[in-house]
Recover the amino acids of this structure.
């Protein structure tokens, strides 16, 4: 159930004026001229207009409000733009000797649509030997350093006129923009709301390229005339992603006469800044996702899928069942216990996790469990069963065909991986009843009717002996599944119609 949205802007300008005028005779009986020409009425109308504007603002949620709400929900800011990265190959021209390409060298591609250059910066020095190729790493955009002077006024800001991006490459991955005031570094904050008047903090609007300083209440203001040095990486997002053989020029004329450059692989990884709408949708999805195991359904969901074991190894879990109060050793319910039954993804008809796999799953799930809850990760128990049935065939079908197909159908139905009515695997702890067996057999077109059916359980204490289940129903423990080892275990007697 969602919260109701109340309309706070429910008073108009006319309502405010009429209400004020109706109170004049109560608070000032001597005021008798209530025409619009009266200066007092003019003041009432002015204040009513201001009040209406304030009430209108109450009903609006602006971008700063949304950003604060996102922060409360775990998203500090919408994701910033990220520049593309790639590799370029340098090769010397004829008669050129060894050439060193310094860090910070700019190379470029030309946008075929606009004719504008898309600039990339080399982030590590490359030595190119004669007659050989050398590969260097480039990041779209380039590093910029500018200096400004403060006017000393509160809320001083600097407009850089360029988008600020934050590269992911570790050599240039910094929390841009970096700001020094009179050669002393100031600290970047998401906002200045919690900053004290003496804190040398600043904030930034990356997408619009604006650096903000405090008002001497929330964050200090640089003194008048202070030199402010700003360093930032400017560039594009998705526009910087290029196909191979697009980067083909070096912007340094001296190097361009000695070298050629080309990107032999695509340049990728450029991402535009996340919009506020996308950030809101992302937090909605995060709120629906499960990261902490509270209910049994949480345990089952978090254990499903691939579990990272480290060193590039993964373990994929096919099915799970979480059982509250179940202890693998004790028969009685135990409080604050959850046992998680897991089936790994495997081609084996009855998959059993190894001890190492159980330990890895336990370590993974222990990070998600609630404090005070004891967790056990256990393998499933498989119970071998079969069916003994007598039926009458349809005249259009041969006896051998009917017997074979019924045996196969029962084996598929009573299967840990493909069984059950929805064919997603026999449910954990799902009992087997004779009525289910009758239904499965009767649904086959070659069966006229079923005369008798029984469920049999393999007696593990006396191998080779099938034991009939009394009462027409086999109860299964909550951590167990049933299976038919071989379709031929199903003893099917097919009679001819009379």
């Amino acid at each position: 159930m969602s919260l109701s949205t109340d309309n706070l802007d429910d008073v108009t300008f006319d309502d405010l004026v009429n209400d004020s005028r109706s109170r004049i005779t109560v608070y000032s009986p001597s005021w008798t001229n209530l025409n619009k020409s009266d200066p007092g009425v003019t003041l009432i109308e002015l204040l009513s207009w201001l009040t209406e504007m304030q009430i209108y603002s109450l009903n609006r949620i602006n971008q700063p409000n949304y950003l604060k709400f996102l922060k409360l929900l775990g998203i500090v800011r919408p994701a910033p733009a990220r520049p593309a990265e790639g590799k370029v190959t340098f090769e010397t021209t004829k008669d050129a000797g060894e050439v060193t390409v310094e860090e910070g060298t700019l190379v470029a591609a030309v946008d075929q649509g606009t004719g504008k250059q898309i600039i990339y910066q080399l982030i590590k020095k490359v030595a190119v030997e004669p007659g050989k190729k050398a590969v260097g790493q480039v990041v779209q955009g380039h590093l910029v350093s500018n200096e400004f002077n403060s006017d000393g006024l509160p809320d001083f800001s600097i407009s850089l006129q360029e988008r600020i991006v934050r590269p992911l490459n570790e050599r240039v991955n910094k929390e841009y923009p970096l700001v020094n005031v009179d050669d002393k570094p100031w600290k970047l904050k998401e906002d200045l709301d919690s900053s004290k008047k003496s804190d040398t903090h600043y904030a930034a609007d990356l997408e619009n390229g604006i650096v903000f300083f405090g008002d001497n209440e929330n964050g200090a203001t640089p003194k008048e005339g202070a030199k402010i040095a700003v360093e930032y990486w400017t560039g594009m997002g998705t526009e910087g992603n290029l196909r191979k053989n697009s980067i083909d020029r070096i912007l340094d004329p001296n190097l361009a006469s000695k070298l050629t450059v080309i990107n032999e692989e695509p340049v990728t990884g450029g991402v535009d800044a996340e919009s506020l709408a996308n950030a809101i949708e992302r937090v909605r999805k995060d709120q629906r996702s499960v990261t902490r195991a509270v209910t049994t359904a949480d345990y089952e969901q978090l254990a499903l899928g691939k579990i990272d074991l480290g060193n590039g190894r993964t373990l994929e879990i096919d099915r799970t069942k979480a059982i509250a109060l179940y202890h693998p050793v004790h028969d009685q319910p135990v409080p604050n216990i959850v046992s998680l039954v897991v089936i790994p993804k495997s081609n084996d008809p009855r998959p059993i996790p190894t001890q190492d796999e159980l330990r890895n799953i336990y370590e993974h799930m222990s990070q998600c469990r609630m404090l005070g809850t004891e967790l056990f990760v256990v393998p499933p128990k498989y119970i071998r069963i079969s069916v003994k049935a007598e039926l009458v065939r349809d005249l259009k079908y041969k006896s051998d065909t009917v017997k074979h197909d019924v045996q196969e159908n029962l084996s598929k139905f009573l299967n840990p991986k493909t069984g059950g009515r929805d064919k997603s695997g026999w449910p954990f702890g799902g009992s087997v009843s004779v009525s289910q067996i009758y239904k499965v057999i009767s649904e086959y077109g070659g069966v006229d009717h079923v005369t008798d059916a029984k469920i049999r359980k393999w007696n593990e204490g006396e191998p080779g002996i099938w034991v009939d289940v009394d009462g027409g129903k086999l109860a299964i423990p909550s951590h167990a599944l049933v299976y038919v080892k071989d379709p031929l275990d199903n003893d099917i007697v097919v009679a001819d119609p009379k």
Notes: The first helix runs from residue 13 to 27.
